[in-house]
Amino acid sequence: MLQPRQDTVQAPSFADLTTMGVGGQIESFLCPTDRVGLIEAVEGADAQGQPLCVIGGGSNILAADEAFSGLVVRDARREINVLDEAAPVEGQDRSVHVAATAGTHWDDLVNYCVRMGLSGIEGLSGIPGTVGASVVQNIGAYGQEVGQSVDTVEVWDRQLKVVQELNARQMSFGYRTSALKATMYRAPGVPGVEFFPTPRYIVLSVTLVLRHSHTSRVDSDQLAQALQVETGNLMPIEQIRDAVLAIRARKGMLEDPGRYQLSWMKGTRETSNIQAATEALHMSVIQQSGGTTECDIRTNRHSCGSFFMNPVLDQKKAAQLPPQAPQYQVLYQGRPSGTVKTSAAWLIDHAGFHKGFHLENSMAALSSVHTLALTNRGGATAQHVYDLARTIQDGVEKTFGIRIIPEPVVIAQR
Ligand SMILES: Cc1cc2nc3c(=O)[nH]c(=O)nc-3n(C[C@H](O)[C@H](O)[C@H](O)COP(=O)(O)OP(=O)(O)OC[C@H]3O[C@@H](n4cnc5c(N)ncnc54)[C@H](O)[C@@H]3O)c2cc1C
């Protein structure tokens, strides 16, 4: 069944559907409410050779100002199921499988799991977007990545026109990438022709394997510091979630809960969680006198989170970095991979682009609280954001010889 929100009223624009709040008018928009409807919508567009964009929360898309002459599909299903027969028993430390449909809000799932005493994704609290997109770019934060907890991903294969179940190995998760994302690009940051801006594989549902445990290891120094414990310590997962949300609020890395009041976003997130997110954001302002202000939250609320990925360099390139630049050994299957990750935020800052930086006559600016976030200050166009991104990329390349690559899906930039 497809919701009757199609073609009878004017479709929304990308500005209505994305956290960046920019982007042109969409030709057709469908919100299928069941699995068959979702596949039919995708299959119908592909059969007609119509441009297709499957969108989730729109929190990782920078869409062009020009109209999109194609179909945008948003999965309206928001279902979470604990698959194992026996309900989790407190005090036990065992695996529990949890399945969620692609359209489920990611943080609704995290909140649900933390409340159930299921650990494994609490460090990913507060990341905007949907379950479906979470596995496309292998979301990560504070020492966790979703790929570590994925059991299987059910997908519609647009090429073979079949439903498939991919296991974690087949998903080839890496730093902000997966086998699904790889189908969209010819080279890092260079869109492919056949499957862009949406991968060959459409995520229908994701099954996670979590531990039934009220505690989890703190695997990030920043998080450990916030919790006042050593990295590697075990802490209650509720406390980890609260600490992550507080750090995110301070850095402007929580989405604006107010967007769920807007007509095109209504019903895409659990109402009680919108309320809780609004209160948490408000509390963070009260608790941080001299820190984040209501004004910071308002000015920085339209972004895609971190706009650039941290560059992963070979040893030769890494040796050319200034000695003060952060460097982390990248591990592959627990062993050093011979590559080094550096910090995009450090490179941007040391290339002269500081918090709040903007071009003349532009409403796009670096966040006032986070160097890595490009923000729409209200009234920005996609071109403003794109010009800012390009200026920063060029500046970093000129200073350090490294081309930083956008994390969001950048549709039809000039
Ligand atoms: C304030 C803020 C903070 C953020 N913090 C983080 C962070 O800490 N870590 C992190 O990793 N990311 C972060 N992000 C980025 C973003 O939240 C994630 O990438 C998220 O997974 C995007 O989900 P979405 O549903 O909004 O995807 P969208 O933006 O809607 O889509 C992104 C891509 O996924 C594809 N897609 C969407 N649904 C499906 C599906 N069902 N099947 C196949 N493809 C699909 C789209 O076609 C598109 O190519 C942040 C963003 C914001 C705004």
UniProtKB/TrEMBL annotation:
Top-level taxon of the source organism: Bacteria
Active site annotation, chain numbering: R176, S306, E407
Role noted for this protein: Cell wall formation.
Documented EC number(s): 1.3.1.98
GO molecular-function terms, A-Z: FAD binding; UDP-N-acetylmuramate dehydrogenase activity
Name under which the protein is recorded: UDP-N-acetylenolpyruvoylglucosamine reductase
Annotated coiled-coil segments of the chain: none
Chief location: cytoplasm
Family: Belongs to the MurB family.
Localization per Swiss-Prot or TrEMBL: Cytoplasm
A GO cellular component annotation in the UniProt record: cytosol
